[in-house]
Amino acid sequence: ELKVEQNPLFLSMQEGKNYTIYCNYSTTSDRLYWYRQDPGKSLESLFVLLSNGAVKQEGRLMASLDTKARLSTLHITAAVHDLSATYFCAVDMTGGADGLTFGKGTHLIIQP
Amino acid sequence: EAQVTQNPRYLITVTGKKLTVTCSQNMNHEYMSWYRQDPGLGLRQIYYSMNVEVTDKGDVPEGYKVSRKEKRNFPLILESPSPNQTSLYFCASSPWTGGRSPLHFGNGTRLTVT
Fold first, then answer.
1. Would you say residue B4 has pLDDT above 60?
2. Which residues of A touch B (CB under 8 A)?
3. Which of A105, A111, B22, B27 has the greatest CB tally within 10 Å of its CB?
């Protein structure tokens, strides 16, 4: 059974600071996804990481994947209030046929 | 506009009264899926479908049924809802590209069973 663990589950930080969210998964996979969810809203795709060493960046967010360590990170640089949201990582166990297994989410609050 | 449409957005019902939550996508996606989201548990997959007439159980299928008679529609059926099915439900779809495409999510259906 695939397990996906995110750390931390809750994070309160100041604007302008840097921080990293971690996503560990338990079985071999080379596909990892990051999603964002605003309160009361749906999930929005941020990144798809498809191979070992993949790194993707969009604005102040950068995601990376280490398939050997079964670890992905979502790094926030110089946080701004608009990045406050819940962030989920999700992993495929097989070739996508079984669907995604999600982590429990990281609730991020960025205070002015 | 490309989208996944769920209806209704909010639903309050009583134990045992059959209900259907509809899901429709206009992107010609092969893959569709239902998730439920509960506080502290993240999203858990209920059922998924890789194409018309092909459906399979996810992690928490008990108490739910689905059908995929047309490519665009993937309704979720609760034959006899119970209070533990109170949750936020999301339908999602993606093109079948070997699992390399992200899911597109609907806006969610908040279900309360009393």
1. yes
2. 31, 33, 35, 41-45, 48, 50, 88, 90, 92, 94-105
3. A105
